[in-house]
Amino acid sequence: MNLFNKFSAIALMVISTINLTQATDLVVVNGGVLPQYATIAAAIAAASDGDRILVTPGIPYNESSLNINKNVQLLSNTEGQQYQVSANITVTPPVEGSNIIIQGMDLIVGSINGGVVPGSARSKFTMVGSTIRNGYVNFYTNARWELNMMQDSILGTNPYIYMRFGKLIGNYLNTASGGENCIYVLSEVTAAADSVYIVGNVIIMSNSGSAQSGIYWSNNTNFFYIANNYIKTNAYAQYSITVNGTNANQTGSNTIINNTLYNSSQGYQCMLLYSSSCFTFVYNNLLMNGGTGVYGIYLGGANTNYVISYNHLQQTSPTNAFYGLVNDGTNIIASNSTYDAATGMALTGSAVNGGYPNDAFADHDLTRNDAGCGGGSFRITNFHPMNNLSNGARVTFVNAPRRVLMGNNAVSYTHLTLPTNREV
Length: 424
Description:
Layout: H1 9-16, E1 25-28, H2 40-46, E2 52-55, E3 61-68, E4 73-76, E5 83-91, E6 99-103, E7 105-109, E8 112-114, E9 123-128, E10 131-132, E11 137-138, E12 145-150, E13 153-156, E14 161-163, E15 166-169, E16 172-175, E17 183-186, E18 195-199, E19 202-205, E20 212-218, E21 223-227, E22 230-233, E23 238-243, E24 253-257, E25 260-263, E26 271-273, E27 279-283, E28 286-289, E29 297-299, E30 306-309, E31 312-314, E32 322-323, E33 338-339, E34 346-348
Parallel strand pairs: 1-2, 2-4, 3-5, 4-6, 5-7, 5-8, 6-9, 7-10, 8-11, 9-12, 10-13, 11-14, 12-15, 13-16, 14-17, 15-18, 16-19, 17-20, 18-21, 19-22, 20-23, 21-24, 22-25, 23-26, 24-27, 25-28, 26-29, 27-30, 28-31, 29-32
Antiparallel strand pairs: 33-34
């Protein structure tokens, strides 16, 4: 079975919109002769919209540059293996509302950039189970891109993901140096009031640069749901999560929930929150600061739209837990929690069973929510360690009611995910 069968639920929904009635499989083999193709570029040139390009792993494909300008899927042709490519890749939608997919690629040299999007509707690029060893993913230069990334690794001296709309689920980013925000979300052309999901990612900022964030939100056209991420910063003036601009539509809201944020150095805030034009809920986060003078949550400017509850802060200097806000009595500002440095999950202390007590936030075992990335239904071990090339088909991410009540009782709900190694 080739890797096409392993797409997440999101990728399957993307693929389902393409008419595959006349689709053709084109096989790429390094040095191959027709009916095989010797290069990926040659296969793209010969392909039609809806075709699958099955790339055979082995000798790396030194393509220099690739322009994916058709609605195609680039997939590994061998179970359990990635195909290696050396190229700077541009994704150029051929028509309005295009869908272009990469799975199982190991981009050993190069980056991926989104090109010009035709028309007024979003075009979609989905990458699943792939690796970028020393590059970045840039889909913000055109405001009509939807970027979906699941179970991908972005590595190197200056790796980052720039986007405007989409879903980032269960990815791994590790930066050795450089001065970019790891995940940077900017506004679209017009307010859409849709939600961007950033869930279950591991972000390691090993560099010593400053004025960077693990997640930097600067989007006033969409809402965000930032959950169960594990973010480690390592230097002065590095922030785990920064919010600088939100949608003003009062019918929606933003959520920052069940993240583990660790700052190992004497530096700035774990969470830097500027003015929010709609309600933003900050629940069940575990903030671990190793340096003195570090604020756990810093609220910049006058703000009445943040609801900040059931967060657990372990500070070297507990008096610096908050800036610009008053504890509502539910936040633990001198937490005795310990955590697993590999997973970010709380092990002992106040964070265990210390999250929001409503059972809509319950953990997988139906006990009270654990603060940090191990709590709730999006727990980090759903996604890590990544296992994206074996174990058959999986569901990576599902939005579904967690609790359904009948009768006149108020219905409360959260979200549900399935473990990434579950057969479907």
